[in-house]
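Sequence only, no structure available. Ideas?
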Amino acid sequence: MKQINALFIGLSSLLLITSCSSDPEAKSADESVQQTSAGSDSLKKEEWFPETNFDTLRGLYTGDFGDGFINVVLTYVNEKKAIGYNVHKGLQRNISGSVVQKKEQFELTLNEPGDNPYDGIFVLTISKKDGSVNASWTANDPKIKSKKFTLKKRTLDSKNVSDEKDYFDFTSDKVTEENFREVFSHASLYIGDKSGDISFLENGIVKYSYYPDNQQNEQMEMIKGSWKFKDAKTLIIDWAKNNEFKARQMSFKLIQNTEEPPYFETKDGKNSINMFMY
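Reply:
I predicted one. Tokens follow.
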């Protein structure tokens, strides 16, 4: 009797399993779930963007940063990676990291080397619509306050005086942000009664070389900083920490007319940048 009951239960279970597997509605529902899952994975993998010329993201970006400003230079960008450097108060730090393309913007996550106590991570969000850049910087040291700021792409020397002639005629030519470095390629910075040579590099670094106490028999010293134009006639310099200048940031106004060579001067008239005339 026990063997008959066991046989009956076994046959019943087999019929139930066979019935479920042959049920067209159950099979259809299972296939639908599988197709939906596969379709979802396919959509994730096949996200598509129009072809992009990532070289257009290269260049010099500048903006306010804490108590000064910062220049960020992107020298290489492709669909996955970006390389460059930043300059803040004359200190240059290399940066590199990833590029992620999204529907309306590019997101660049860029790491500084990490061997400086003030190194950190930049995140640049560049709009596809207008090229505007929202940025943030988070220090590796959690004790240092993070920063949020905006950057603006700056045009580099697209036109030089030498493109048309080999000299600058102040009676007719004008100094612009585009030809500034060419016109002031040889210049002096006067700080009160002291003076030295000043040079402006394309990457936003400025160098001031001078003899201590104007003693030319001593070895020249150098102070680095960062430079940018606030507007067409205002030049801003942020100096690295030093014992020579009382003010870490200097603002110079462009003075130009047809009676004398152009020069830059601080509001109080005590400091000026003058071009060499040959």
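The helical segments are 2-21, 24-45, 180-183.
Hope that gets you unstuck.
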